[in-house]
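Thread: "does anyone have the structure for this chain?"

Original post by V.I.:
We have the sequence but no experimental structure in hand. Need at least a predicted one for the grant figures.
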Amino acid sequence: IGACGATPEPLYLALAMPAHRTVRDLISFADGVRDACEACAPGTVVRGGDMSDARRIIVSITATGLVPAGKTIGRSGAQPGDQVCYAGILGHSRAGVEAMLQHNIRHAPERALAAQMRPEPPVRLGAQACDLGAHAMMDVSEGLAIDGARMARASGVTIDFDSAALAP
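Reply from O.Q.:
Generated one for you, C-alpha cells below.
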C-alpha cells in the first residue's frame, strides 16, 4: 500500500486454524494483528474476512488503500535526474532469514530477527512521498540492487548508486 503512494484503508483477513486451537490462541492472533496495524499504519483496522478449519494455520490478508485521483505511482515512472530514497534499514530482514535457515537464532542480532519476525514497514511514508512529487516507488523485498534494477528497467532509465551514500 505504501509503495504505491496509497493511504491505508481497512484490511480483510482470512484465517484457517486447526480445530484443537483455543479461543485464547485466536485472541492472541487478533492482538498481534492489531499491534501490527498500530505499528505500521495507525488507525488501520480489520473490516472483515473469513474463518475456517484447516490442518495448519493459514492466513491471507488483503490490504486496501486510497490513492488520490491521478496520483497512482508504480515502479515505471522514474525519470532521469530523480533521486533514489529508501525508508528503513537495508539487510536486517535478510540477516534474520539467514539466521533462521541456519538454525542460528541464538547468535543472530536482535534487530535482524525483529526485522524478519515483526517487520515495521514505513507504510505512511508512501503517501508522503506521493504528496512530495515522487515519480516512481516500489517495495524493496529482494534488496536495493535487484529491486533498483527492476525499477530502472520498468522506467527505461539507469540508476547509479553512490556507494558512499549506502555505507552504514
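V.I.: this helps a lot. Residues 6 and 66 are 5 Å apart (CA to CA).
O.Q.: and The helical segments are 23-40, 92-101, 110-117, 123-131, 144-155, 163-166.
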